[in-house]
């Protein structure tokens, strides 16, 4: 808390202003290769979980830290991101929040979110970005005060999600939208796919020295049983081929020189699907 004292010759006025500190963010591995995330506000004690695919893994971390779960945030409806919702909600009476466009596919969703809206989580304002492509109603969650972006299965470290429901144009627009956030933004994605993504990226962008350096760092992290996320948006923009669609070298590598960016993205995504 910050105490501001304002004085004049006639009176003395004291105003109290709350200082919001960045969230504590804990990466929780779940299932085979998923990540969910615990977000904790020290002042209020509020704790949120993003995309809990497995309730037991979340409960273990909560118990170890003596945190009380108050909110559940979902980016999209896939089971490996919502399977823990109902158990955690029942155990903690947590508020369930997610994309309005997928309200029929996320049971018991209480607060639906749309692009342009915000949600106040214990004084931390989360901005909602609609990022369709992986699913048609997918959203990403941006906490400016913590420089944290939760991308679900839209943007991965060195890659992007599979295009299950949306179009190539929608998916590419979603990636461009995320790329416009500050370079210092930390990317928290839904899966540990970085090593596989790095191998594919190097097969396309083999002369990229930043990519080679990132690939080495990724292997070192995994060798030490450490997650490869979060990554920085600045690094992603320099190394992730799906954020570099407009670089002529990417188009040349896949035989699409001069093609429309949407066509280049669709081809790149197809190549990754079959890699």
Features:
275 residues, alpha/beta, Metallo-beta-lactamase, Chain A, six-stranded mixed sheet, 9 helices, 16 strands
Structure overview:
The structure is a single chain. This protein is 32% helix and 26% strand. It has a single domain, classed as Ribonuclease Z/Hydroxyacylglutathione hydrolase-like (Metallo-beta-lactamase, Chain A, 4-Layer Sandwich), CATH 3.60.15.10. The chain has 9 helices and 16 strands. Helix 5 runs antiparallel to helix 6. It is α/β, with parallel strands linked by helices.
Q: Secondary-structure map with pairings?
A:
Layout: E1 2-7, E2 12-17, E3 24-30, E4 34-40, E5 47-50, H1 55-65, E6 71-73, H2 79-82, H3 85-92, E7 95-99, E8 111-113, E9 118-121, E10 124-130, E11 139-143, E12 148-152, E13 155-156, E14 159-160, H4 168-179, E15 186-189, H5 194-204, H6 209-223, E16 231-232, H7 233-239, H8 248-253, H9 261-273
Parallel strand pairs: 5-6, 6-7, 7-8, 12-15
Antiparallel strand pairs: 1-2, 3-4, 4-5, 9-10, 10-11, 11-12, 13-14, 15-16
The H-and-E topology, N to C, reads as EEEEEHEHHEEEEEEEEHEHHEHHH
Task: Name the CATH architecture.
Answer: 4-Layer Sandwich
CATH superfamily: Ribonuclease Z/Hydroxyacylglutathione hydrolase-like
Number of helices: 9
Strand content: 25-35%
Would you report the number of β strands?
Answer: 16
Structural class: alpha/beta
CATH class: Alpha Beta
Q: What is the percent of helical residues? A: 25-40%
Shape: globular
CATH topology: Metallo-beta-lactamase, Chain A
Mean pLDDT: 93
Major sheet characteristics: 6 strands, mixed
Order of strands, widest sheet: 3-4-5-6-7-8
Poorly predicted regions are: 1-17
Number of domains: 1
- The whole-angstrom Rg is 20 Å
Cα separation of the termini: 52 Å
